[in-house]
């Protein structure tokens, strides 16, 4: 009987210590998307990590190119940057301080300023913030001019 009680106490002690001191890891997936107003152009995440290239006709009418990066563990106001890169050279950079869950809105008039000099070339779009300091390659955009 005593040995049974000792075994029971040992099992309970191990169970409590495992429960109390166990390391809990969270599984998060950072996702991103790029839209032209509400039209989805690119959507990916760190799990599937597909890199897309989309054509964007500069003649088309739209208000904003929106880039959203979603961290399920963060909803703070953070400093965010978007870079447009052509052959390792930054051709445009945009910055704002906003809630991390809100889209980064790039007005069409700002996009038009950079697109004319780089028509029909793949331009990398890279997102940076304090969480993703090394940057996230959102995808490539190829600016076209079709009537």
Give the gist of this structure.
The protein has 147 residues and is of the alpha+beta class. The protein has helices at 2-21, 108-115; strands spanning 31-36, 39-45, 53-57, 64-70, 77-86, 89-99, 104-107, 122-129, 136-144.
Could you walk me through the main structural features you see in this protein, from its secondary elements to its overall organization?
With 147 residues, the chain is α+β, with helices and mostly antiparallel strands. Helix content is 19%, strand content 46%. It has helices at 2-21, 108-115, and strands spanning 31-36, 39-45, 53-57, 64-70, 77-86, 89-99, 104-107, 122-129, 136-144. The strands form two sheets. The chain has a five-stranded mixed sheet, with no helix packed on it. A four-stranded antiparallel sheet has the order 2-1-4-7. A hairpin with a 2-residue loop joins strand 1 and strand 2 (39-45). It is elongated, with a radius of gyration of 24 Å.
What is the top-level CATH class?
A: Mainly Beta
* Helix content, binned percent: 10-25%
Total of DSSP H or I helical runs spanning 4+ residues: 2
> Strand content of the residues, in percent?
over 45%
Q: Multimeric state of these chains?
A: single chain
CATH-derived architecture: Sandwich
Count of distinct structural domains: 1
Structural class comes to alpha+beta
Annotation, overall tally of beta strands = 9
Q: Give the CA-based shape.
A: elongated
Mean pLDDT, as a whole number? 84
């Amino acid at each position: 009987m005593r040995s049974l009680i000792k075994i029971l106490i040992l099992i309970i002690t191990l169970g409590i210590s495992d429960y109390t001191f166990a390391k809990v890891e969270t599984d998060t997936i950072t996702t991103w998307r790029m839209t032209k107003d509400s039209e989805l152009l690119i959507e990916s995440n760190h799990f599937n990590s597909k890199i897309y290239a989309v054509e964007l006709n500069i003649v088309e009418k739209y208000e904003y190119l929106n880039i959203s990066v979603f961290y399920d563990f963060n909803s703070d106001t953070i400093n965010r940057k978007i870079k447009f890169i052509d052959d390792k050279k930054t051709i445009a950079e945009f910055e704002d301080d906003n809630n991390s869950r809100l889209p980064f809105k790039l007005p069409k008039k700002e996009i038009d300023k950079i697109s004319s000099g780089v028509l029909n070339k793949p331009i990398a779009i890279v997102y940076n913030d304090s969480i993703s300091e090394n940057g996230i390659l959102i995808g490539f955009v190829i600016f076209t001019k079709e009537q």
